[in-house]
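Look at one such:
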Amino acid sequence: MLSLQAETDEAGLLDIAASLVTTPLPDDRPLWAATFVPAITGGRAALVLVMHHVVGDGLAGLAVLGGLVDGPHAPVPAAVSRPLPTRALLAVDALVDRLGSLRRMPKALGRLFAATGELGPSLAHRAQPCTLNRPTGPYRSLRPIVVDLSLVRELAHKNGATVNDLLLTAVTGALHQLLTERGERLDTLVISVPFASRTHTESDELGNRSGVIPVGLPTAGEFSDRLTAIAAIMRAAKEHEPGASTAVLAPVFRLLDRLGLYQYFIDHQPFVHTFVSDLRGPAAPIGLLGCRMLDVVPLSVATGNVTVSFTALSYNHRLVVAVASDTKTCPDVDRLCDALQSQLTGC
């Protein structure tokens, strides 16, 4: 664990976090890092956890956090030494695995068809070109937006929607306002929304088991009308197997990487305008080493040609939306944050 000793304020802490989350982790060390920031104005401290996406998705990150905080934890079973397997046992194990693959074939084909249905409508239509997609550099800024979770939930449920539906409605509305100020008009934005193939996990069962669904969402019109429309769009999108897109995207991305084309594709992808992720965090306050955790801010930054992205996390009756933007291609991020704050409360 790295510790930073110099005192800083909240803005400085966010700059530190943005720098840490955009710095590649060393290949010769575990793909995670923890940085302790002990001196923040107001007598506070912070812990910045960075985890590579191959180690864990958002749910896995919450499981790691749950394993660190104060409170009772399930004991980790002690390792049991076993003799090395013989060649015969290895051969039998390989045969059983092959037979298992054959048994899983119908399910795998079904998942492939589900992935095609999940991605097909979005891949058939490219995202309309706009300033949300530009070549980006290595530097990001983080801006947290904090709202009362009960107010957001009440507004969403009153319109037959979920908190995630309302978040998407607020983001598209804020981006519509930003683009209008830039002299652009897009009636539809394509948002990449992650879906997990599991509802929970433990700290000893990490891994990334999430997929994405690119959805075209309306940007113009009254807030309540857009919320109702987006809720219907998301219900239809969820009819497919959640996270099934991984069955298609994972091998495609691996092939692009082997061909040396992955970064080029990410830098020029024409399918989505931005990413919006939402996670449900602890409802009650949690502590670390006897200290109460005042805030939990989600960290996630987009790469390639996506200039701004959004990650939301609920904690202790509040919803925190972290707006991550490229410092050069999104200089008006403060106006975007102001618009998002208003949209989240239905104003």
About this structure: Residues 61 and 132 are 28 Å apart (CA to CA).
